[in-house]
Amino acid sequence: MNPRTLIHALVLGAFCLGFGILVATTNLFTKDEISLRAVEDLQTSLTQVIPPGIHDNNPAKDSVLVKNDAGKDVTVYRATKDGKVTGVAYEISGAGYGGEIRLILGVAADGRILGVRATEFKETPGLGDRIDPAKSDWITRFTSLSLADPPVDKWKVKKDGGVFDQFSGATITPRGVVGAIKVGLEFFAAHKAQLVEDK
Amino acid sequence: MATQYRQIVRDGLWDNNGVLAQMLGMCPTMAMTTSATNGLGMGLATAFVMATSNLLIAAFRGYITREVRIPVYILIIAAMVTVVDLSLNAWMHELYKVLGLFIPLIVSNCLPLGRAEVFASKEPVVASFLDGLFMGIGFTAALTTIGAMREIVGSGTLFADAHLLLGPAFQFMETRVFPADCGVLVAVLPPGGFLALGLLLAIKRKLDIRAGKPIVLAGAHSF
């Protein structure tokens, strides 16, 4: 091999090794903290959709896997009080304008919504991101609604003949969210027996 | 020495500003400036990476052979970005939730690579660190200004959600310029980025002409 090529290879290799070690070390020191933060995030989003008054357990640590209609496993976190399931929370998703919108939905044992929050989305800032409670209270209007209230065929944005406000300039985002919540409620209805069964 | 440092500061902030003169880093400039706060966050993260990567590259410049310099620069920049990404996630999690999306994008910004090649590969450590830092601050200023223009016109707010980025103490910065739903939507959509940047470039050119400075074509000017 040409000795100059060898030198270049050695230089590049040495830098890769050095900075590889730097990145690996950083990963080692941050790994535990990062997984702690992920659990905290989960707990924070669960407390937003499950009121603290209705449970005496830690829902983040009480989960079951339930298959949805698409055959995918959904992790359902359960809130229990005196051993009875009082509410459940699980992740739902809808199609937004900028890609998938992931939300967490809390449902009481009687099928009413305890709360819903968007956890991950890439909607247009200033338009679709009004599903974020930090920017608008739109998402809180779903609390205490159920599949029967409003009637199931009215679970749409106003533009589609339903009862939910769209945002000015953005219809696709609220449409995706309303659709996702409706599917989420239907999932609850279909698996109610399994979800709220006493432990 | 002092004059050289003054020149570095002035180049970074205005004369050879990364966005307004070199026209580098157009991807984050367009994508992340839908609000002043987003522009500020992206800018600060980039400034940190540029200062540290310039410093490291200048420190190792004697060992980096010409033929493999570009992969080595990219390696160093990517390593710094990863370190920032992991550290923010672990220890400044609230800030990470706001900036998290932007940080990996810094690797694809050609401004840090540009400064590594043009400056840090030839100059001493302190000067390179300052160059990275002030190029980064100039980048931050440009992104924040474009973000502010788009946010005011598009959403009627200025520095909305600044407290998520800077902490609750900065809530006072959040202002509403005019009522919601009066915004001109196009400003926060992609075309608004080009319009705001074009306007800003024209303003800079006008000011430079008035100051009697020679007009330098984008990209032609370097150290």
UniProtKB/TrEMBL annotation, chain A:
For the protein in the UniProt heading, the enzyme class is translocase
Keyword annotations for this protein, in alphabetical order, are: Cell inner membrane, Cell membrane, Electron transport, Flavoprotein, FMN, Membrane, Phosphoprotein, Translocase, Transmembrane, Transmembrane helix, Transport
InterPro entries linked: FMN-bd, Ion_transpt_RnfG/RsxG
EC number from the UniProt entry: 7.-.-.-
Instruction: Spell out which residues are annotated as carrying FMN phosphoryl threonine.
Output: 171
Q: Which residues form the signal peptide?
A: none
A Gene Ontology term for the protein's cellular component: plasma membrane
- Coiled-coil boundaries: none
Q: Tell me the NCBIfam families matching this sequence.
A: PRK01908.1, rnfG
Protein's name in the database: Ion-translocating oxidoreductase complex subunit G
Q: Which organism is it from?
A: Telmatospirillum siberiense
| Taxonomy of the source species | Bacteria, Pseudomonadati, Pseudomonadota, Alphaproteobacteria, Rhodospirillales
Gene giving rise to this polypeptide: rnfG
From TrEMBL, chain B:
Assembly, in brief, is:
The complex is composed of six subunits: RnfA, RnfB, RnfC, RnfD, RnfE and RnfG.
Query: Which keywords are on file for this protein?
Result: Cell inner membrane, Cell membrane, Electron transport, Membrane, Translocase, Transmembrane, Transmembrane helix, Transport
The record ties this protein, via Pfam families, to: Rnf-Nqr (PF02508)
From the record, give the transmembrane residue ranges.
40-60, 72-92, 98-114, 126-149, 183-203
Record has Membrane as a keyword: yes
> Per the annotation, which location comes first and is thus the protein's main one?
membrane
Similarity remark: Belongs to the NqrDE/RnfAE family.
Organism source for this protein? Answer: Telmatospirillum siberiense
Query: Encoded by which gene?
Result: rnfE
Can you supply a Gene Ontology BP term from the record?
electron transport chain
Membrane topology value:
Multi-pass membrane protein
What are its E.C. numbers?
A: 7.-.-.-
Show the taxonomic lineage: Bacteria, Pseudomonadati, Pseudomonadota, Alphaproteobacteria, Rhodospirillales
| PANTHER family assigned to the protein according to its UniProt record, in alphabetical order | ELECTRON TRANSPORT COMPLEX PROTEIN RNFE, ION-TRANSLOCATING OXIDOREDUCTASE COMPLEX SUBUNIT E
Q: What does this protein do?
A: Part of a membrane-bound complex that couples electron transfer with translocation of ions across the membrane.
* Cell compartment(s), UniProt: Cell inner membrane; Endomembrane system
Q: What is this protein called?
A: Ion-translocating oxidoreductase complex subunit E
Q: Name one GO cellular component term.
A: plasma membrane
